[in-house]
Design goal:
heterodimer; A: about 120 residues; mainly beta; globular; B: about 110 residues; 6-stranded mixed β-sheet; 3-stranded antiparallel β-sheet
Chain lengths: ~120, ~110
């Protein structure tokens, strides 16, 4: 049974970096048919895909245009997890952040529990 | 940028059929999927690749996708189906979500 466990701070100051971790159990971050994604949800923007990483003989990363200049998603094979870093945050980045697996069908079948992140001083 | 449009709300009586639409330019040329989300919970995939149901999703959930519209149909709607439903598709290596539809069972 695949599970994703998120961790990270719930409060970040404006202009600082938002950092979240998604620990994977029951699957591998370097699996050849899966992709590991970050998605956020806010009342004003609904569900918004942020980006993904996947391994196909080498690591690939894709990012949403809206955050491309500020986002990094990295895998950690030693601990079977992946990270989200979002730089220079503003209050508009306040949202519930989810990690999610795409198992190869272009859909997200496993989701983390969600982390409410508030950007405020 | 590509957009998916859903009605903000749909109402249905228990036991009846609910249909939720998702519209986008030539959406039928892409795969659409659907998520159910209850308050305070993470989304749950109920339909992928237009009409396939993941393991554990009841048969009353079905999907179709043609032209510019994908449709999620819930037959014999139950009170437990009351939730927000979100459609999703890929466009040019980017994931796009619809705005979500609140399904009320009354």
């Amino acid at each position: 049974q695949v599970q994703l466990q998120q961790s990270g701070p719930g409060l970040v100051k404006p202009s600082q970096t938002l950092s979240l971790t998604c620990a994977i159990s029951g699957d591998s971050v370097s699996g050849n048919s899966v992709a590991w994604n970050w998605i956020r949800q806010s009342p004003s923007r609904g569900l918004e895909w942020l980006g993904r990483t996947n391994y196909r003989s080498k690591w690939y990363k894709d990012y949403a245009v809206s955050v491309k200049s500020r986002i990094t998603i990295n895998p950690d094979t030693s601990k079977n997890q992946f990270f989200l870093q979002l730089n220079s945050v503003t209050p508009e980045d306040t949202a519930v952040y989810y990690c999610a697996r795409d198992w190869g069908a272009d859909a997200f079948d496993i989701w983390g529990q969600g982390t409410m992140v508030t950007v405020s001083s | 940028s590509y957009e998916l449009t859903q009605p903000p709300s749909v109402s249905v009586s228990p036991g009846q059929t609910a249909s939720i639409t998702c519209s986008g330019d030539k959406l039928g040329d892409k795969y659409a999927c659907w998520y159910q989300q209850k308050p305070g919970q993470s989304p749950v995939l109920v339909i992928y690749q237009d009409s396939k149901r993941p393991s554990g999703i009841p048969e009353r959930f079905s999907g179709s996708n043609s032209g510019n519209t994908a449709t999620l149909t819930i037959s014999g709607t139950q009170a437990m189906d009351e939730a927000d439903y979100h459609c999703q598709a890929w466009d040019r290596s980017t994931v796009v979500f619809g705005g979500g539809t609140k399904l009320t069972v009354l």
